[in-house]
Fold this sequence. Notes:
8 helices, globular
Amino acid sequence: MTVNQKSAAQLIYLILAALFIASLVTSNLTFQKFFYWEPFGIYRFEISVGILPYPITFLITDILSEIYGKKKANQVVIAGIFASFFSMLIILVSDMAPAIDNSPINNQIFSKVFGLSPLAVLASMLAYLAAQFIDIRIFHFWKRKTNGKHLWLRNNFSTFSSQFVDTFTVLFLLCSFNVLPWEIFGGLLLSGFLFKVIVAALDTPILYLLVYLFRKKFDLAIGEEIRE
């Protein structure tokens, strides 16, 4: 690999890591708003807006696993943990700071919107740790088994498994912390998992395109990874 290619590879890695962390932190901060989506009247999804950026994190770890390898993918996952806990600390300090009389957002509104975020971040991080490492491990298991072929297989198998673990764990913890009522656990689990499965299936062509472009740019063979 040339010097220019190494420089480009490092820049792209940093951009993907930044997108990963931004998606993860945004997901944690926006989880309290729920909406419904009823495609073609077939099924009514009732899900948190926090779930919208979350599939992006799994797409990015699959790209990193395929092009940069397991070690680099795990590094971004760990960086996401630090970013999430740091954002939680900022929210806690911000919530304790008293609002002035003419503040557009008073103490009560701020606490209502962000007050549960630390619990959500804790629940999300526990689920996130389990899901992301499962995703990366399963991805590389199938990569070895298929000798780097059948990208769609490892992409979807790893994502389906890890997304179920993530959805179940985060909802179980949020209900256990009394952030969400147990009555909606089953509906949110089904809606959340199905939504993530659909998104994972739809992003497969995007993954193929990006992996193709990266392989072409860095002269990588099928199954080959960028070496440090």
